[in-house]
Amino acid sequence: MATYIVLLGPPGVGKGTQAKILSERTGLAHISSGELFRENLKNNTELGQVAQTYMSKGELVPDDVTIAMIRQRLSRPDCDSGAILDGFPRTPAQAEALATMLSEFNGQVDVVPFITAEEDVLVERLGGRWTCRAGGHVFHKTFNPPKEAGKCDIDGSELYQRDDDKAVTVKRRIAVYLEQTSPLIDYYRDHGKLVEIDGTQPIEQVTQDLLEAVKK
Ligand code: AP5
User: Phi and psi (nearest 5°) for 199?
Assistant: First the structure.
């Protein structure tokens, strides 16, 4: 039976950082909706162009476009044992669509670690984040600096600051999270899937708590 983990939490709380580590340690595929959109933009696809008009403003890409993209990604063979979903679902409609999709694959959402931190922590993290062009690996100028400035430790590619990490867009992304994504906290709690994780701890400690939650 496949295992599906949904990482829930506000922008900048550490979902991407943790999803990459969990994927290495569990062997499950890492699916980041934000990274899929950014790859499409890099490859200049129609989907990428559509997504960019929303992402640059900190708004959500429409549900139908996002759900179709995730359905296609989950159908790939590297997801046969399951997946870690990072950034999806983000609305109640996406959560319902995911449940339907997974039941078609004879699976279900097994656990939803909800990573938490206050807004000032999120703003500081996003303001100092550096992302790698090739693989989307993330660093922080203070909390998780690369060994060599401007260069990814893992694949050596250039580090850049995401356009949507500008202060004004970060504010909007957090507001959109509170309006449109936070209802999923109760949704997954009511389904008995939610496990709260303190995202203000050091990265390795957050990983330990996540591994514990996943094991249970
Ligand atoms: P997306 O790329 O998913 O962005 P996000 O959810 O806003 O999340 P982030 O990637 O900003 O943060 P994160 O939680 O992954 O934190 P990270 O690990 O990088 O989405 C971007 C856009 O795409 C959306 O705004 C929307 O437009 C669109 N989109 C995506 N999915 C969608 C969907 N389902 N529906 C519709 N639209 C969608 O960490 C942040 C920083 O903190 C890093 O610098 C890191 O090094 C540092 N850090 C991490 N953990 C710690 C720690 N424990 N201590 C100290 N520093 C830490």
Answer: -80, 0
